């Protein structure tokens, strides 16, 4: 515009050009006003939307700034409390360990009473497990507890003598219990024979079907090389049922006794005791059997003489 006005030849041309420019400017203003009138609603909505977006962005920036300040504050607080938290955590672990030790001490104090009950009911495997576990605890984690010294000595003494009781029970079942079953069966056969009044028909003593200790191992004793593992498995699988009579099954009871001796680590002493008492026990079996046979024979002779059959 300035170049056009400056290059004009005279004032009239400049006035003409100026008038034309002013007219164009006024036309532009009118067009703009018309467009504003036509699009007033859209323009108002756009301005409000822009204003709302601007406010949200500003609020978000303020919130982010506040969150950053809070995070920095938390970081400082956590940094200050870290040592205290670690100390509290360690104290919590210590208290938990102390509570466990107190519970263990309370349980161990009841061991002598429970041990007497198990020994009285002849549940030797439970008694052995309880005794070994208690002694291990007393000589391990609870070794420094001075108040348990008397209980420690008592249970240690019982553990040292426990295998003697198990060995006596094992011998009783090996030599006395098994032979008693033979004698009882022979008496029953003698009673049956006296009922038929025929002494010559009394059968010989049949011991082939008795479950003697040897027959417990007989099926796998002279078989394949895997028989040893099979015997070990059968012994490991033996469990004690506290609800049943422990001596009902003599073979299982002897397996329980051997398992208890193994837990006490007294198997060598057991083998030595069995070897030392073997001859004496066998002689006692012969003596008892001889007495029993003689008593049965005398009673049978008395019955026959009463029936006038002197033969």
Automatic annotation (TrEMBL):
A Gene Ontology biological process term: protein targeting to membrane
Gene Ontology CC: exocyst; growth cone membrane; synapse
Matches recorded under Pfam families: Sec8_C, Sec8_N
Keywords in alphabetical order: Coiled coil, Exocytosis, Protein transport, Transport
Positions in coiled-coil regions: 18-70
Exocyst complex component Sec8 N-terminal domain sequence ranges: 20-117
Function statement: Component of the exocyst complex involved in the docking of exocytic vesicles with fusion sites on the plasma membrane.
Protein name: Exocyst complex component Sec8
């Amino acid at each position: 515009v300035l170049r056009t006005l400056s290059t004009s030849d005279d004032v009239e041309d400049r006035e003409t050009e100026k008038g034309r420019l002013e007219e164009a400017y006024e036309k532009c203003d009118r067009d703009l006003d018309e467009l504003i009138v036509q699009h007033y609603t859209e323009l108002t909505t756009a301005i409000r939307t822009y204003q709302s977006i601007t406010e949200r962005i500003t609020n978000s920036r303020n919130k982010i700034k506040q969150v950053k300040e809070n995070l920095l504050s938390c970081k400082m607080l956590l940094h200050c409390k870290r040592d205290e938290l670690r100390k509290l955590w360690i104290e919590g672990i210590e208290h938990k360990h102390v509570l466990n030790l107190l519970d263990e001490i309370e349980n161990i104090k009841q061991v002598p009473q429970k041990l007497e009950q198990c020994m009285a009911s002849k549940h030797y495997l439970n008694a052995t497990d309880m005794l070994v576990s208690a002694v291990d605890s007393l000589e391990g984690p609870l070794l420094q507890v001075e108040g348990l010294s008397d209980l420690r000595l008592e249970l240690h003494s019982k553990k040292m003598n426990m295998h003697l009781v198990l060995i006596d029970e094992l011998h009783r079942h090996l030599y006395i219990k098994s032979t008693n079953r033979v004698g009882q069966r022979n008496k029953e056969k003698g009673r049956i024979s006296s009922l038929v009044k025929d002494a010559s028909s009394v059968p010989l003593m049949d011991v082939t079907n008795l479950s003697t200790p040897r027959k417990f191992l007989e099926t796998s004793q002279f078989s394949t090389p895997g028989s040893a593992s099979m015997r070990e498995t059968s012994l490991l699988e033996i469990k004690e049922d506290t609800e049943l009579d422990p001596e009902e099954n003599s073979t299982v009871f002897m397996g329980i006794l051997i398992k208890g001796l193994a837990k006490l680590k007294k198997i060598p002493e057991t083998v030595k005791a069995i070897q030392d008492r073997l001859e004496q026990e066998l002689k006692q079996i012969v003596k008892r059997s001889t007495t029993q046979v003689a008593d049965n024979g005398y009673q049978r002779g008395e019955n026959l003489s009463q029936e006038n059959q002197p033969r």
